[in-house]
């Protein structure tokens, strides 16, 4: 049973043709604001993607409102919980893509890989004939990933096609298993691989979030924490809040061990940005940190 003061965090997405997103924007934003919801929803002609937080009643109301649209009546979502508001504002943004690959011809509404449930995932990625790929960005992969997973070392999702062209071969990599945070990047990544001639492409349904929610820790093949794009920073097995913080300067996730580095100074620098910091940038960052603390 969820305590009354606990906020529900709902992650949702669906690839579906939405040619009227301009008209949808105002009504979705207005309804979310009426319910006191905070977070971000992206709308594009290819679908909807978002993460929002609010009370149990408010989240249920927003999901019900979205599902009154016949195109979204089967909209799926994943939930986690927090006692600290993870977002400051409510935004509904119009985008060209709900997850940016930069190849508009790649359409998950036309073809997509085979969905694998969290309960089937362990067997699949334990198969030595399966190439397991983490489709997230490098800084996300470094704080946690699945055993045997390859890191494409991308900085943005747009770089994924280049990784595929250089590192993967449909004649060599017969079976490929993809995963990401909530499942959305894998929809496009699997569609792209199929368009490039890969025969067997699988992806984790519901993403890492669903896996961490449903698979007991003693059975889990997940190692580390899962990065989130909200103020919780990361979560662990069972969707418990993680231990990472964000560097105030560069935004890179930092662990407790990073704070012991001589390159770490709270609010000023961390091991990931220290070497690129000029004296002038350090002075500006010191002022920013000072103003932030005064504002708090």
UniProtKB/TrEMBL annotation:
> Which principal EC class is assigned to this enzyme?
oxidoreductase
Entry keywords, A to Z: Oxidoreductase, tRNA processing
Tell me which stretches of the chain form a coiled coil.
none
Name the domain of life this protein comes from: Bacteria
Which reaction is recorded as catalysed by this protein? uridine(34) in tRNA + AH2 + O2 = 5-hydroxyuridine(34) in tRNA + A + H2O
Record-level GO BP terms: tRNA modification
Q: What is this protein called?
A: tRNA uridine(34) hydroxylase
Q: Which organism is it from?
A: Anabaena cylindrica (strain ATCC 27899 / PCC 7122)
Underlying gene: trhO
């Amino acid at each position: 049973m969820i305590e009354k003061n606990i906020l529900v965090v709902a992650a949702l997405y669906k690839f579906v043709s939405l040619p009227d997103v301009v008209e949808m924007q105002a009504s979705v934003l207005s309804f979310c604001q009426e319910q006191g919801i905070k977070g971000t929803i992206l709308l594009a002609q290819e679908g909807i993607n978002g993460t929002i937080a609010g009370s149990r009643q408010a989240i249920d109301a927003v999901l019900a409102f979205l599902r009154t649209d016949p195109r979204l009546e089967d909209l799926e979502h994943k939930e986690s919980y927090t006692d600290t508001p993870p977002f400051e504002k409510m935004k509904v943004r119009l985008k060209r893509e709900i997850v940016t690959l930069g190849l508009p011809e790649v359409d998950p509404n036309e073809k997509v890989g085979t969905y694998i449930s969290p309960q089937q995932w362990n067997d699949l990625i334990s198969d030595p004939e399966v190439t397991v790929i983490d489709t997230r960005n490098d800084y996300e992969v470094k704080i946690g990933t699945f055993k045997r997973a390859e890191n494409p070392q991308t900085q943005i999702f747009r770089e994924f096609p280049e990784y595929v062209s250089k590192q993967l071969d449909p004649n060599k990599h017969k079976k490929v298993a993809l995963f990401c945070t909530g499942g959305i990047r894998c929809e496009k990544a699997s569609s792209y691989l199929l368009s490039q001639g890969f025969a067997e492409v699988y992806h984790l349904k519901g993403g890492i979030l669903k896996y961490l929610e449903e698979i007991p820790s003693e059975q889990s093949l997940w190692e580390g924490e899962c990065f989130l794009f909200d103020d919780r920073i990361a979560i662990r097995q069972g969707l418990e809040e993680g231990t990472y913080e964000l560097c105030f300067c560069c935004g890179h996730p930092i662990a407790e061990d990073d704070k012991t580095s001589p390159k770490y100074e709270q609010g000023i620098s961390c091991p990931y940005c220290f070497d690129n910091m000029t004296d002038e940038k350090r002075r500006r960052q010191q002022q920013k940190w000072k103003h932030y603390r005064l504002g708090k």
